[in-house]
Design a protein that fits this description.
Number of domains: 2
Helix content: 55-70%
Shape: rod-shaped
Order of helices and strands: HHHHHEEHHHH
Number of helices: 9
Largest sheet: 2 strands, antiparallel
Strand content: under 5%
Length: 263
């Protein structure tokens, strides 16, 4: 595979070199002949204008080909680019051929002179078109097709049964002569520390609570998360709340695209 790719690369480089040389040679021969024709018909006394005049035709070909390349890269058809290229090419070929006979008798000019005059502009046109096509293919192959990332389905996590809070009844110490209280002792939850303040949950527990809340409501916001944590007698700080929301963001976005759970 490496040998094949290397051979293709060198072949493309060689073909590109030949095409560039052919394009430059054809344009130069055509341009020089048109300059001679211009010198024979009114511009002989001004060499600068004589050599600038062929550009009024050949520049149309270059501009049209470049615009056609741009249109091809954009997958559209540019009528103006086609018209510019056709006008410049047809005008260049016609004037190169017409310049052979000049104002003399056309019957005395050999047919091969017309062929010699017509070959350079025709070759330049074809070579330039092939060059633009190679550039088009090179750019097109280097632009890979966008890869569509499969959308991850939203699966509702299985609900875990919440373990009931085990309460520990404060045992009464029998004291001689003491009066038994008329009310039962208060129930203290193991999960609640001293002072009556709810305990803080771990990040894994908070993420699991967030997933369960997302499944139940079809969406998840900071207020819903905070309420769900509070309903379980737990607390969550602002920073930890932000961490949980960032972890569950892909699930939240996926749930928003598929719609709320109907069940």
């Amino acid at each position: 595979m490496t040998t094949k790719q290397t051979a293709e690369r060198y072949t493309l480089i060689a073909a590109g070199t030949v095409i560039v040389a052919l394009t430059a040679g054809g344009f130069w021969l055509s341009y020089a002949h048109l300059a001679e024709v211009a010198g024979q018909h009114g511009l002989k006394n001004s060499p600068v204008r004589q050599w600038a005049w062929p550009a009024t035709l050949d520049a149309f070909i270059i501009a049209g080909e470049l615009l056609m390349l741009r249109a091809g890269l954009r997958r559209v058809t540019d009528g103006w680019a086609i018209a510019l290229t056709a006008t410049g090419s047809a005008g260049s070929i016609a004037l190169n051929v017409a310049g052979v006979s000049g104002t003399g008798n056309a019957d005395t000019v050999p047919l091969l002179d017309y062929v010699v005059a017509a070959v350079p502009p025709t070759a330049a046109l074809l070579a330039f078109g092939v060059l633009m096509r190679q550039i088009h293919q090179l750019v097109d192959h280097s632009d890979p097709a966008p890869v569509q990332t499969p959308r991850r389905p939203v699966t509702a996590p299985a609900k875990h049964a919440e373990p009931p809070a085990e309460a520990i009844q404060l045992a009464e110490l029998p004291v001689a002569g003491s009066v038994q209280p008329s009310q039962p002792p208060p129930t203290v939850s193991e999960s609640r520390p001293r002072g009556g303040r709810p305990p803080k949950a771990t990040l894994a527990e908070l993420v699991e609570i967030g997933r369960i809340t997302l499944t139940e409501h079809g969406t998840l916001s900071r207020s819903l998360l905070r309420k769900a944590v509070k309903d379980r007698d737990l607390t969550i700080g602002s920073e930890r709340q932000t961490e949980v929301m960032e972890i569950l963001r892909p699930d939240i976005e996926a749930a928003a695209q598929t719609g709320p759970n109907s069940g």
